[in-house]
User: What shape does this take?
Amino acid sequence: MLAMAAVALGFASCSEDRDPVFHPAPEGSFKVYEPEMADLYITLEPGKVIELTCNGQPDYGFSAICDYSAELSLTPDFAESYTIEPLNPAQSKIQLDQRMVATAITTLQGYTDEEQEPDYVNPGFIPVYFRAICSFAGIPESRMVSNVVTFNKIKSYFSIRKPGYIYLVGAPEGWAGPNPGSEAHYADWCLFEDADKIDSKIYKGTFDIAAGQAQFRFYTKLDGWDGSSWGSQVNDSPVDYELVGGSFAGKLVAGKGSLNFPGWTGGKMNITVDMSDMTNVTITIKAE
Assistant: This one.
C-alpha cells in the first residue's frame, strides 16, 4: 500500500510539473539592489554599460524565461519615464548600453531632433532614477515593477534615437567593399528601420538597379568582407533566384553567398530585410 501511495504521489507531482499554473507575484517581491556605483561620478560613454541587479524572477508559481527591461526618469516620482531594453532581456542582471541611457536622458530633457543639438545644454552630473520591469510575454498580469534606485552623479551627452540600418553590398554599388571608413560610399546603399519603428530590426530600402547588376548581400557593419555578412548561403558563391509575378521572398543566413537575379531587366527594387528574429532572418523583394 505504501508503494502504491508513493506511485500515486509521483503521478500527482509529474502532473503538477506538466501543468504549471500562473499566479501574480506578491506585491513588492521584485526588487533591485542598491547599485555599488550609486555615488560614483559616471560619465556616459557608448559601448559601456550600467548594471541593475535584481533579486531574481518574481514568484509566479513556476520558473520560466522572463523578459526584463528598465525604466529611467529624471524625477523620483517617474512622472515622465523612458523604457530601455537591456542587452540581454532574459537576464535578471540588467545591462543597459550607456548610449541608450544617454538617449533616454536627452529625450526626457525635451530634445527630440538632431537639429536641436546646437541648443543642447548639458547640466553636468545629475541624479538619474531607475527601476526594473519583469514580465511574461502575453500575460499582462505578470508585469512587476521594482523599487526605485538612484545613480546620483551621471553626466550624459546629446544622443537622439535614430532608425537602425544595414548595408546592401554588391554589383549595384560596384563591390566597393564594406570596409571601415567607407560610410560615405554606402550612404546611398542603406536599408533603414521606419522612423516610428526604431529597434524593430526590420530594414527597408528602394534601389534603382540596372539589368544584369542584381547581385548582392547585406552587411550589418562595415567591418570587412569577412565580417557581418548575410546572404543566400555560408559559402562565398552566389545563388540564382527569380522574381515570380514581380516579387520574391526567402531566407538569409550568416554567410557570404550573394543573392543573384539573372532575369532582372532593370528598374527599382523594394527590399525588406527582417532581422527581428535572428534565428529566422527573411528577405522580401518587390519590383516597382
